[in-house]
Structures are given as structure tokens and as C-alpha cells.
Amino acid sequence: MELQQLRYVLAVGDTRSFTRAAKQCFVVQSSLSHQVKALESELGVRLFARTSRRVELTEAGAAFLPAARSALDSAERAAQDAAAAAGEVHGHLALGTIPTLTAVDLPRVLGRFCHEHPHVSVSSRTASSDDLVAAVRAGEIDVAFLGLPDTAAPRGGRYVRLADERLVAVLHRDHRLTGRRRIHLHDLSEESFADFPAGTAGRAQNDAAFTAAGLLRRVAFEAMDTALVLDLIGNGLATALLPAGVVPERDDLATVPLGDGPQRAEYLMWSDFNPTAAATAFLAVLSVQTGLSVQTGLSVQN
Question: Which residues form a coiled coil (predicted)?
Fold first, then answer.
């Protein structure tokens, strides 16, 4: 049984197609099919039921895949650890970030990280804080940048509080409140808002602020894409509460401080359960680039 055979079987299992699996593995389909058949012959079972149009896992295949994935992960981890022992970091770094990250200049940090560790590949996922926390806990993401209400904290991993800030009102340049030195939530109670989807942490902090003030508001647009939210405001369709750092200088936008606006905290979170060499190296670079005490003063919650 060879590691390449395991990679091919996992690719077929994930894509449910020999053609797509071959493209994913950058190999001709005939070679991939031959290796899968050779492995099936060695195991004495069929892993896939297939026709010219359809591929499905057999019962044996469904039982084989989890262990095969674990074995491949362990082999790749062994190679990474050996490289790290030799002074080189290899492998993959999976990052997660909210769309409103302001506490860290992530492109600058990644530039330094990639310069120091050129053998590490990097992927990034943008999602809500709740989804990112779940992904860290599940081992799908190594490091995540979060935004949570200032009374909350990540659970299920290690974290550092990066920054605290009060959100501002983002208005169309011709809005009646533009130019004010400061406004309050009751000034916005009749507005149509653009906000993150209901149930997300970014939305919850805004809803909680209006509820605490005894006010109702109408959210007319929901979106995870900050650029879309800003364009809605620029077209006079909505108002939003956002961190000032994510609002670019545009002729059609204006920001006004909120005296009683919601406050949020930005966090760095990661799992200390068997961290990869790439994740450890990224945290080290982040510490140097930002001055954060990533290795000390940490809190853990389960």
C-alpha cells in the first residue's frame, strides 16, 4: 500500500469521479484508475462501485476512507516534523479571518511569513467568527482572527485579545446626519440597515446594542461581504455599524462616531492540541511583527 494510492482513493471519494480526481491530483485518469484497482486487489475488496457515469463508495470503501485519511495525515505530519527538526518548516497553514479584521495587517504578516518559510503553502477562509471558532475546534483551521462582542471570548482553544473598538455609523455622504460630531443609536432607529446575517457574532453585537437601548431597527439587507455593504450605503440604500478601519475613503461614504454604539473585541485564536510546525511558525512571526505576546499570557476555555 503506497501513500500515492491513498491520495488517489481519497480524491475519488471526495469528488465521486475518477475524472475529477485525476485532475485534482494532476495525473492522467488511466494511471489513477490503475493505482486504485491495484489497491483494491491488494485489499481484496472493492472500494468503489462505478459505471461510466456514476461512482459511489461501497460499504468497504466508506469504512476504509477515514483510516486512510488519518494515515495520510500522519505521514505528511511526520515529513513536516522531520523537516522542522532539520531547521525547515514545510506543510500547510490554514488561516481563518472575519471580513472586518482591523487589528492586524495580515498581508504584511503573511509577506514576512512566506519570506521566512517559503516551503509552506497557505490558504485563507473568510467567514463569521462562530464558524471560524468551530473550524479551529474541529482542526480545519490552524489560526483564526475573530471579532466578538466585548463581553464574549472564544471557547475551545487558546486566544489573545488583540484590540477593542467601538463601531461607527457608516452613512451615505448626503445623509441628514453626516457632519455631526457624534450621534446615538436613537438617531438611527428609523434607518434601513445593512448587516451581517442573523445569528452571526458580528450581527449579534449590533442587535444587542439596540435592544439594550430599548430600540427596534429594520435590517433590510444581510451580507457577509463588507464591500457589498459599503456599496449599498454608497447607493443610498442602507446604513451600517462597522469598525472605522474597514471603511475606505470614498466620496459617497461618511462615518460618524456613536456615543452608545456597540463595542467589539478582536481575537487571535488557535488550537494547542497538536499544532503543526507551520502554525507554530506563523504565531512566532506574528509575535515579532505585531509585538503581541502570543506565547505568554494566554487563556484557555473549553
Answer: none
Complete DSSP assignment for 57-104 = E-HHHHHHHHHHHHHHHHHHHHHHHHHHHTT---EEEEEEE-TT--SS
CB 150 within 8 Å of CB 206: no
At 196, the amino acid letter reads: F
Q: What is the pLDDT of residues 118-135, one digit of tens each?
A: 989 999 999 999 999 999
- Of the CATH numbers 1.20.950.20, 3.40.630.30, 1.10.10.10, 2.102.10.10, which one belongs to the domain with range 3-85? 1.10.10.10
Q: Is the pLDDT of residue 296 over 50?
A: no
CA pseudo-torsion sign 217, 223, 226, 230: negative
Domain 91-164+265-301 carries which CATH code? 3.40.190.10
* β 168-172/240-242 pair status: antiparallel
Cα-based distances in Å from 198 to 86, 146, 262, 295: 48, 17, 16, 35
**This prediction's pTM:** 0.69
